[in-house]
Structures are given as C-alpha cells and as structure tokens.
Design a protein that fits this description.
3 domains; 5-stranded antiparallel beta sheet; Umud Fragment, subunit A; 19 strands; elongated; single chain; alpha+beta
C-alpha cells in the first residue's frame, strides 16, 4: 500500500490522537510572542480542524477514497484505480440493479476474521429470481467451454474469451467460426455459439460491461437450498430474500462474489462507487 493510501485509511484512534497533539501544540505555542510560534500554532489548529472534518465526519458518513486491489471488476475498474465512494446515498435509498458498491466482505468471502472491503456490481435485489447459464461453443458433437476456447485460441491463458449470440470474441477481436473449426482439425464442422446469460425474473440481462460471459451455472450445487426455488419452466432459480443482495464482479469468471460465498447482507453495504480520480488518464464517472 502506498503512502497516500495509508494516509487515506488512517485508523480513527490515530486520527484522534493526532488531533489532540495538534491542539495541545497550538495551546502551548499560542501564548508565545514570537511570530514563528504564533504561525505554527495557527497551522496546528488548521491541521487539527481539517483532520477532524475529513476523518471524523466526511470519511465515515459522506465520501471516502478507495483503491482497487484486484482484477475482479475489469474492464469497468482496473487494478490500482483510485475511486470516490458516496457513503451518504444509501442512507436514504436502497441499492438498485447495476449499482457498483463497496461493502464489508463476510468472513465466508475471505476465510479470515478481519473484515476486508470488496467492490462488486448489484445483479439482483430482494424479490428478484436469478438464474445464470454457462456459455459454450459446440463444434460438431464437441462442446467447448471458456477454458477450452482459451487454450485453443489464445496465445496465453490470460486472454479473454467472450461469447455473444453469434460469435466468439478473443481479446475483444471476433474469431470466425471457420477458424475455430479449423483449429480443431474439422474445418467443415458446424459451429454454434451459446453465450452464458444472467436471467432476472425470466428475462436475460444485457451485460455489455463484462469481460466475459459466465462460464458457470447458478444456482450451484452448494447454493443454500433455502434460497432456491423452481420457476415456471421448472428451472432452479435463486429468490433474493429481504435484506440480501446478489453481487458479482464484472470480470465474471475471475471474481470472488455472491455465487461462491452467498448473498450479501444489506447491512454490510458501505457506499456507492461514483468516480475514478486516479490515474489521470482514467478520470471519469463509474457506470
């Protein structure tokens, strides 16, 4: 963590001690007649007021800076982006579909007792019924998932594979179906693309913001059964109960999110991600 990140996340006890020291310094110096002493006293007072305002009022209740430590929200947020989070907005309204939020991750998400801050996108809210299908490509009788396609078409395993309704995108470049069949030594085979989709209340969500389409079905076998019901087509779906949210990373196949550790408790939500302020070439609103 950089010096600026450490300063931005100073613990409250450290802030209080620092403010007390600055005020004590101001009290001792203000009685001195020397101009430098008086100037130092005024500076100490200004720093104490500024720290108290920023760290004891603005940061806990209004707005706070965070940095992005992982690739789970790519391409919307990149590693080491610095963002401003509005901690005020959810005091008056509930999170809605598509919001990007910072929250305190539950112990199940980290395997640790210490709480960590996570950032994910809201996919479903209380009352919604959710089902996720996995994407694949069928070449003749053979079924290829994302890992198969990545190994077949990418120069490295870090490449991205996104399936759309009629084509395969590798690192955002369309790969002709003929090329996929040829890579499997069956150039005349029929190629069919079946993208993974998120269904909310039976309707597919247009997820233009994801790095890849989903490569795993949801609900999973280990999804708590009290959340799972059947829809009108006899598909298993997850019904979001009151006080819970389904949150997922935009880097859909490289994200530790609700699919794996459970639905997020509403009380853990800290705020809404609003704005990227660093680096300079990334400045902009978050959508």
């Amino acid at each position: 963590m950089s010096i600026t990140e450490r300063l931005a996340n100073l613990p409250i006890p450290v802030v209080i001690i620092t403010v007390v020291i600055l005020l004590a310094l101001r009290y001792l110096l203000i009685k001195q007649r020397h101009p430098i002493a008086k100037s130092t006293a005024e500076l100490a007072e200004s720093l104490a007021v500024a720290m108290g305002l920023v760290f004891l009022i603005i940061r806990p209740f209004i707005i706070q800076a965070f940095f992005i430590p992982s690739e789970s929200m790519v391409p919307t947020l990149l590693t080491h982006d610095h963002i401003m989070v509005n901690k005020f907005v959810y005091r008056f309204k509930e999170p809605k579909l598509g919001d990007i939020m910072v929250f305190k991750a539950p112990p199940e998400a980290t395997g640790e007792d210490a709480e960590k801050d996570f950032i994910k996108r809201v996919i479903a809210v209380p009352g919604d019924k959710v089902r996720i299908t996995s994407g694949y490509v069928r070449v003749g009788p053979r079924r290829l998932d994302h890992d198969d396609l990545r190994g077949l078409l990418c120069d490295s395993y870090d490449g991205t594979v996104k399936l759309t309704s009629d084509r395969v995108l590798v690192n955002d470049e369309a790969v002709p179906n003929k090329s996929i069949a040829t890579a499997l030594s069956c150039p005349d085979a029929e190629v069919e693309v079946f993208p993974g989709k998120v269904y909310i209340n039976g309707k597919p969500v247009a997820e233009t913001y994801t790095a890849e389409d989903p490569d795993e079905e949801y609900p999973r076998n280990d999804t708590p059964r009290q959340w799972v019901v059947k829809d009108g087509d006899d598909n298993e779906v997850v019904r979001i109960p009151d006080g819970r949210l389904l949150v997922m990373g935009d880097n859909r196949n490289d994200s530790n999110d609700s699919r794996f550790w459970g639905l997020l408790e509403r009380e853990r939500v800290m705020g809404k991600a609003m704005f990227i302020f660093w680096p300079l070439n990334r400045i902009g609103w978050i959508h």
